[in-house]
């Protein structure tokens, strides 16, 4: 056997342990079908489509790891990619941490990608990986906003909420995944920033709390998050358009 050190590798961690409450009653969101295939399988394929990603860690619902392992075995996935399934936690932040804990030592760069963003194009994945490999410790894909955003004083449900301010829209970005990180930076962020309430809403936010710079690269409209029922309608339409285009 060669005693040369193995080159450092890039892994993707896919938090998929959420219930999908905002999507309505049914199976855990990641296991629901999109175009006849579980949303999670689309997300796993989207990460494995990047030749830069050699390991995908899937963070399953806490009691659903065997089911997710079976699901992956039933679907065609690239042979050059390694897949690991670990049980998740009660918040997204805890689930990502459990995924990071499972990474082998030779992983130097990590993507964190929501199972709920099943249709992210491979070019977006590659752009994030490239930026990390070029030396950025934390990279997020993002898009400018179409709506004006107001900061409000949250009130009781259904009651009018006083507006506090209107941030300058041209300075705002809607952040997507995969978010890419130097592994040590992301692990440090997850160790230092405690889970409070629902946890941090994204991983780059934890890194920002360390004072480490985060940069934005262009996101993609098709990397939207399936959160509410209407998002599922859009996702089915995007998938149908892709399949029709592939047919010609
Ligand atoms: N305890 C949790 C909560 C969320 N997630 C994952 O984090 C991603 C983004 O979360 P979101 O879209 O909010 O999913 P849910 O938490 O399932 O949605 P909801 O808030 O509507 O229940 C999803 O892929 C989800 O599976 C996770 O791994 N573990
Ligand atoms: C990580 C994220 O997708 C970036 O926009 C988002 O913050 C996840 O939020 P959610 O409420 O857990 O879906």
From TrEMBL:
Site residues, Positions MEP for the nucleophilic attack: 169, 225
MF-aspect GO terms: 2-C-methyl-D-erythritol 4-phosphate cytidylyltransferase activity
Site entry: Transition state stabilizer: 22, 29
Keywords: Isoprene biosynthesis, Nucleotidyltransferase, Transferase
Pathway(s) per entry: Isoprenoid biosynthesis; isopentenyl diphosphate biosynthesis via DXP pathway; isopentenyl diphosphate from 1-deoxy-D-xylulose 5-phosphate: step 2/6
Catalytic activity: 2-C-methyl-D-erythritol 4-phosphate + CTP + H(+) = 4-CDP-2-C-methyl-D-erythritol + diphosphate
SUPFAM superfamilies on file: Nucleotide-diphospho-sugar transferases
Highest taxon of the lineage: Bacteria
InterPro entries referenced in this protein's UniProt entry, alphabetically: IspD, IspD/TarI, IspD/TarI_cytidylyltransf_bact, ISPD_synthase_CS, Nucleotide-diphossugar_trans
Function comment: Catalyzes the formation of 4-diphosphocytidyl-2-C-methyl-D-erythritol from CTP and 2-C-methyl-D-erythritol 4-phosphate (MEP).
Similarity annotation: Belongs to the IspD/TarI cytidylyltransferase family. IspD subfamily.
HAMAP family from the UniProt entry: IspD
Stored NCBIfam families: ispD (TIGR00453)
Name of this protein: 2-C-methyl-D-erythritol 4-phosphate cytidylyltransferase
Species annotation: Streptomyces laculatispora
Lineage, top ranks: Bacteria, Bacillati, Actinomycetota, Actinomycetes, Kitasatosporales
